[in-house]
Write the structure tokens for this entry.
Amino acid sequence: MVYKERIKSFLLLFLFVTSIFLTRQLWIQIPYDIFPSFGRDEAISANFLFADMIKPDKYQLNFSEKNHTIFYSDENNDLWTNTRIILADIFSSNNIVMEELSADEFSDYHKNRSIVFYFPEEFNTYILTRSLDIPEPNGIVDKISNIDKVYFYLGVGEPYIIFSNGDRNLKVYDPNLNLDNMKNRLKSIEDMDYTYYYPIRETLYVDNDIYIPYKMSKDIATVYVENELNTDDIEEIRSIAEVFFKKDIDYIREIIENNGSILYLYDQKVLKINQNGLLEYFSPLEELVKERNLYISLNTASEFLSNHMGVPRDLYLSKIEEIESEGNLGYRLTFKYRIRGIPVILSKDIAEDFIQIDVYNNYVRNYKRFIRRDMRINLNEVEETKPMLSTYEIINMKYPLLAKGYIEDNKLSLDLVDEDNLKEEVLSSIKDVSLAYLDPCNNKQKEKLIGVWVLRVGNRTYAFDVYDGELLFSKIDS
Amino acid sequence: MLKKLMASLLLFIIILSTSTVGFAAKANASKYQVIIPEEDLSATQKKVVLISGKAPQGTSITIDVYGAIDLTGKKYSLIKLPEDDAYTLISSKTIEAGSLGFGEEVELILGVNKIIVKFNVEGAPVIEKILYYFEKEQVERSLRNTHITPIKN
């Protein structure tokens, strides 16, 4: 009798768990960063939510006045995921107290125990609150309309948050703000092995707030990638065409061009799969779009990306541009992604970036996609014997090149320039330093990514090999 | 008269040349500097510290780290520095200055560390910095062990 009851209980429990699982499948779209156990190992996710788009690309950890580090990767998104919940609370709190800070004051705050999250570009504060699922945010959005970094004070005394966009810095207190989890996380990282970063304002005596390392604590991982699309497998390509047009392949017109590219046409919509792995899609707008709305456009983009082949797990929005076409107003959204937590950049003009999507409120007009997958292989090559160079070593080695670019861009006369003043000006014009993988885009498979230091100096961007300092890529920003 | 004039001229030349030599030596010294650490004596909780400064490109620089071993953590402090012969050489590294000068991280031992930066150029200064490296737990331990005598009324 007892045995029968146990079977019944077990059956009931099983049915309950199954019902929760199926309900989640049907209705609940869970951002995959919130519950790490869901889809952590999936390379491609089908649910790309608005919340997943807005992520920082750099994390500065200030342990004390003389002890700082910067992470470019947050592989498990631990830091950001926990922070998102705190931000949601502060944006919806009714008890906040706000105070404006000067740039110098904010710079000094980096000497305190804290974490600073840097976004790849300035985001509209209201859009950030919508990504946190807050329908009616408090006065913070009125006080500071754009944000490119968020600071969390984690020292002794009352905690606070600073929202900044370079021009304005807004310090926000809330009596209910609890940053204990972040404090514990910072403490655990402090006990680990990490690279020390130093403010060049102090070490090089220049007017600049960036931090750089003088010696790296560890090397960057060797990674091989392959094209996401196997252009030699026609069946796979046809199945992609079916996804885009939501029709059986028998109803879609297929044209194979001389260069190997394949075109699919249906009802004025065009899908082109290039031999090099670039996917291009065009769909005419169904109506005139006279007013642009970023919130609607971001939602349309996330839905489109989720329903068309999914996206790499660590995709993030890197650029938002306003565009106009035949009287229609929209946005061009550019996405980058990380491999093993580090952002990837392209060296060739195969595509402007990995994903570029032109959205006009509810409609997607153009879509370009060039994704490369981490092969997670080890080719038993001889490991790099040289140690990885730090940013200081790169700048020390490549200063003449940086100075030449600065002189050209500012049309300076060499005879009139004082060497020490020039050095100070060049070093003060360094806007950003970051670590990335450069994809040479030479091979469809077994392409080795190159670790690079990306330096934004004045109007120029340089990428230097992290092992030998060779200049691999440079461009003048428009 | 001519003798007087010659003597005055000679004296003038000597004075002029002496002052030029003095000025040149001073100018050179300003090219060789240690910027970090700023203070000659300081305390740190970091095991690794940065030694950075200015020097003309291509200058060879030797950074020697000496430590006074103090197992108890009570023997020496920034107020009670060890005698010169109490220091032992911990590490020595020779580097070359680049376009920005030089910068090198060095590892300290617990207690008093003396860092000597030598610019391997004639006439260039030798710069000495003292760093006291301590752990937070060490301070807490010493505070716990301090006996406080109650004040008697």
About this structure: Chain B touches chain A through 15 residues (CB under 8 Å).
